[in-house]
Amino acid sequence: MRHSGYERHTDDWYVEPAWCVHALVKGERPFVGTVLDPCCGGGNIVQSLCSNEIEAMGADIRDRADGMYPRMNYEQSLHALRPTSVVSNPPYGVAQEFIMACLDETKDRVCVLLRLAFLEGIQRGEWFPHVPLARVWVSSKRISMPPGGTDIPAKGGAIAYAWFVFEHGWKGDPVVKFLPKVGEISA
């Protein structure tokens, strides 16, 4: 099965470009407290958040960054590191469970990069009214996410992606927005 326009990675590890993290930060209100990426892979999201002067940390189920981040599954890292918010590109197959676990362990918001098609489906349609989905930041430019740990270059994205922002205390329908442009956007 193909994800992100590439052959499927064993652990669903795909590397998001820094520009899409910078665009999220530009669009969202400022992050306060500590932000965790519990599926940080090589640390792209953590590094992008830190470059925007956001206190960020990461963890991953595998060591993908030469010991830079603790090796824990996302549930362990949420419990052990107690973040205020989460920003992550989680494995798509566990996205709904991941979001619920993050909401249980955070106080501010959970931002997840997922296929725009995450909005579809009868079961998810029944789930959405019971969670605080506040914003969906659609990327006008297709995001290319090659498999992690490879030298496969980023190519033109084949799948539509968006940042889904679940905000504690949000009431009402989610707002659909488009990611703001940030500097020179490259693949």
Assigned CATH class: Alpha Beta
Strand percentage:
15-25%
- Radius of gyration from the alpha-carbon trace, in angstroms: 15 Å
CATH topology: Rossmann fold
How many alpha or pi helices? 5
Organism: Acetobacter oryzifermentans
Protein name: Methyltransferase
Write the layout of secondary structure elements.
Blueprint: E1 2-3, E2 6-7, H1 18-27, E3 35-37, H2 44-51, E4 56-58, H3 74-81, E5 85-88, H4 95-105, E6 109-115, H5 122-127, E7 133-138, E8 161-167, E9 175-178
Parallel strand pairs: 3-4, 3-5, 5-6, 7-9
Antiparallel strand pairs: 1-2, 6-8, 7-8
Helix pairs in contact: 1-2, 3-4
Describe this structure in words.
This protein is of the alpha/beta class and 187 residues long. The chain has a single domain (2-178), classed as Rossmann fold (3-Layer(aba) Sandwich). It is 23% helix and 20% strand. The strands form two sheets. Strands 4-3-5-6-8-7-9 form a seven-stranded mixed β-sheet, sandwiched between helices. Helix 2 links the parallel strand 3 (35-37) and strand 4 (56-58). Helix 1 (18-27) crosses helix 2 and helix 3 (74-81) packs parallel to helix 4 (95-105). The longest helix is centred in the middle third of the chain and has 11 residues, at 95-105. The mean pLDDT is 87. It comes from Acetobacter oryzifermentans. This is Methyltransferase.
